[in-house]
Amino acid sequence: MTPDDPVESWTRALARRLGRPGSGPIEVRGTTSDTELRFLDDLVVKLHAPRTDPGALALRLQLAADTEQFVQPLTTSPLTAPDGRRASVWPRVEVADPDADRQPWAQFGALLAGLHRTPPPPQLPAHGWPHRLTRATRRAPVELRELGVRLSRETDQPEARRALLHGDWHLGQLGRGPDGWRLLDIDDVGVGDPAWDLARPAGFWACGLLDDDSWHAFLDAYRDAGGPAVPAAGDPWPSLDLPARCAVFVAAVRAVRSDVDSHSRRTAETLLSACRRMAE
User: Closest Cα partner for 169 from 156, 185, 148, 158?
Assistant: First the structure.
């Protein structure tokens, strides 16, 4: 980023229009999904991936503004940055630390249940898990690729349930503002089987990366709040098995392709071991 960067100038002007000084340093963070976050004052300006559909983004922004489970956007219509990328503006909030020893799992479960009980608006696209699985299969090392193909075949069926779901739920998608914990990131919000939002905690619990107390606190709170992804009582696994296996596979692919420290290498090996068992 240089002083004459037109996106920087645009970001500062946008902050001033929203009543901020706009003169401080801008922190830029890229993401694995080709989006870019620019932090200035108490704002987060999100530059969405070039492939973003502006109509779908507008629908999702309005949904976030109307749905209490999300951090509220500061603009309800997509903006256009000087380089042509679509943009949205959000308040800067505390983001959950995925590496923290303790998490408010019960609050997270109730939050997701509330989202899943919210009627989806018309024309909202399907959630993005099948595409995420396809991308992971393309990027997978040889030993995992056939498992990805097999999981993709299993997911290639019409989904019987149509609920509103986040579409990419994990601990990094939670922000805490004045009203408590809320959901972040609207890019994969869509309709489909709500079990996909429980996929990561379910899969990580099944392979030993999430402890029993945390998993049951999350699941019990989700059920108590009327979450529709699993039956209100009894064995939840018939609903969660396929999404959980897919989540473990996607996480394993990401882990083996990342530069990681020793702690993360242990996590990667646990995920890889789980994938090898699934492939048997």
Answer: 185
